């Protein structure tokens, strides 16, 4: 059965009286009394058989000049991640370099990043427009098994949420691979016939 509004009004009144009593505590004393039914009552008027109750002064919350946040105090300098870098480029291989036959289409791509790559940022590598290497916190990434021909390398600098902050200037790379029909290739079927 739902309660009417009267109990809520009484509860609010009791709360207001209690708050008023606490604020007035500094000016008046509080007494503890046990009535005939054995109930404990508190009053600001002394009665026979009552005893004075010492209530400690309520504590006040004072503003503090230094608040600890995440284990660091707010006056300690925490470097925020940059939203852009002054330099971000592919430095190796050089633009229009040729990857010789002996490297079997394997290459290490190196990056220049200034200032230093923030710990929350990653670099991902695209080969001919497709992501070829997943994002990594590294200054170099390896590619292997590139087919012969012309390729375009491009690096993307990602923030902690995977959003692209910067893209490098594209680098063209030429890959030489030994064709099976070259006379010097040991896998040339014509060589085995001789």
UniProtKB/TrEMBL annotation:
Highest taxon, organism lineage: Bacteria
Organism listed in the record: Aidingimonas halophila
InterPro entries: DUF4124
Ranges where the DUF4124 domain occurs: 22-62
UniProt cross-references to Pfam families, sorted A to Z: DUF4124
Protein name: DUF4124 domain-containing protein
């Amino acid at each position: 059965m739902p309660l009417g509004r009267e109990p809520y009004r009484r509860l609010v009144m009791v709360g207001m009286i209690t708050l008023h009593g606490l604020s007035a505590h500094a000016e008046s004393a509080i007494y503890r009394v046990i009535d005939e039914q054995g109930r404990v009552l508190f009053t600001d008027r002394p009665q026979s058989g009552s005893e004075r109750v010492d209530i400690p002064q309520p504590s006040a919350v004072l503003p503090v000049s230094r608040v600890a946040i995440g284990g660091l105090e707010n006056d300690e300098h925490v470097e925020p991640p940059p939203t852009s870098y002054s330099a971000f480029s592919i430095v190796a291989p050089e633009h229009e370099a040729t990857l010789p036959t002996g490297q079997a289409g394997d290459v290490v791509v190196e990056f220049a990043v200034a200032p230093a790559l923030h710990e929350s940022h990653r670099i991902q590598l695209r080969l001919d427009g497709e992501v070829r290497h997943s994002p990594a916190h590294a200054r170099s990434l390896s590619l292997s098994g590139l087919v012969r021909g012309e390729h375009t390398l491009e690096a993307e600098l990602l923030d902690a949420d995977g959003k692209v902050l910067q893209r490098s200037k594209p680098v063209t790379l030429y890959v030489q691979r030994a064709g099976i029909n070259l006379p010097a290739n040991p896998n040339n079927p014509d060589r085995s016939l001789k």
